[in-house]
Amino acid sequence: MREAPAHVAFFGDGEKTFRLTPELIVELERVTGTGIGSLSRRVFSSDFRHGDILDLIRLGLIGGGTEPQEAAALIAAYAAPMPIMSVYPVALAILETALFGQAQVPANTQEAAE
């Protein structure tokens, strides 16, 4: 079976791999309370909740091989306190990669680390 596509970008303290596996998509749906299609429409139209963005990034980190505790710590340190629109491109790229196989527009994730 083929592995889910991954997005690699600088986030927080270095290069990270982000991947939403089918199992993590189910978890994303559970924690956001909505299906992947509805969530995608909301994210693409900028009609999202802050928690949606944080959950997308956290689960993408976990799917990319980051331990869950480390992923939560990275979110707390580098995503939650940042201006929302500086981390939005990261979440968008993770979601686009899960849906289309690659991000349509590369995310400028350097800003999320500063």
Tell me, briefly, the overall form. Answer: globular
The spatial strand order of the largest sheet comes to 1-2
What does the oligomeric state look like here?
single chain
Helix content: 55-70%
> Into how many domains do the coordinates divide?
1
What structural class should be given to the helix and strand makeup? mainly alpha
Main sheet specs: 2 strands, antiparallel
Protein described:
It contains 6 helices and 2 strands. It is mostly helical and 114 residues long. A two-stranded antiparallel sheet has the order 1-2. Strand 1 and strand 2 (14-18) form a beta hairpin. The radius of gyration is 12 Å and the shape is globular. The relative contact order is 0.21. Mean pLDDT is 90; it is low at 109-114.
Produce a short descriptive summary.
This protein is mainly alpha-helical.
Would you spell out the secondary-structure blueprint of this structure?
Blueprint (H helix, E strand, L loop, with lengths): L6 E5 L2 E5 L3 H11 L3 H9 L5 H14 L4 H12 L4 H17 L9 H4 L1
Helix pairs in contact: 1-3, 3-4, 3-5
Distinctive features:
9% strand
